[in-house]
Amino acid sequence: MTLNRSFDILVAGEINPDLILTGDVQPEFGQVEKLIDSANLSIGSSSAIFACGAARLGLRVAFIGVCGDDVFGHFMLDEMQKRNVDVSNVIIGPDGQTGLSVILNQDADRAILTHLGLIPNLQVADISDALLRQARHLHVASYFLQTGLQPGLPSLFSRAHSLELTTSLDTNYDPSEKWIDFDQLLSVTDIFFPNRTEALSITHAIDVESAAMRLANKSRLVVIKLGADGAALRTKDKTIFVPSIPAKLVDTIGAGDSFDAGFLYGYLANWDLDRSLQLGVVCGALSMQASGGTAAQPTLDEALVFLK
Hints:
Blueprint: E1 7-12, E2 17-22, E3 38-43, H1 46-56, E4 61-64, E5 66-68, H2 71-82, E6 85-86, E7 91-93, E8 100-106, E9 109-115, H3 129-132, E10 135-141, H4 153-162, E11 166-170, H5 183-186, E12 191-192, H6 196-203, H7 208-216, E13 221-225, E14 231-234, E15 239-242, H8 255-268, H9 273-286, H10 300-304
Parallel strand pairs: 1-4, 1-10, 2-8, 4-6, 5-7, 10-11, 11-12, 12-13
Antiparallel strand pairs: 2-3, 8-9, 13-14, 14-15
């Protein structure tokens, strides 16, 4: 794709910081106080972490979402701007609060409590054709949290296609665990980015291979993130697997979003699918080497060192 546009990627997403608590403890009711090892307020939300990772690689990224005129909202906008994400289209809601996730992090696992705040308020009507025309690609994450965006997403993706954008979707986990049918949306999705749990839950398949095959019949390109095992890519007639790379594990927050950013860098640069998948795996692995989703996201030069 060689469109001459202001941005490589437009992200339509949720805005919330993460309050990351680290320690080998289990919360307990009854006013039981327990001590943790560290606390860190950092950029949260799948969409924002993805946007920062893509910008870190050198892509031109614009963001649209809704946040409050409050401490958490200003923190997120300031931090995203520092990382070269254009937030001029973000909607500041006069009423309501910016969302917040509190994360208890333990090695490779974590427990998450999220206050949605204004996360569900972004709607398709907020995303104009004029804004779409400025980008080459449209990425949407946290499908299940963005309930205001859900009903119109198939039409938004179709509109994006008519304006010569490609599209990608990362649903993230469904807090309701209903995993509703969204075949109509997948039919207009160029790249679908589930992880292993999400792929199995959506398809009700018993293994990743079966899930990938079913999803590839609905979306043009399916990329399943397999954590420490790497990633698998499936089209209707091709399967590619790339193993992970050794990396020091501090926490896994945002690793999947950094993976998405790496893969889309290669995709938008017209790399072959194998090399794009390798870059995604490398970016996801390297991002786990510091606390929070953005602190260890690599530059392109840092990531290329690990590519074959």
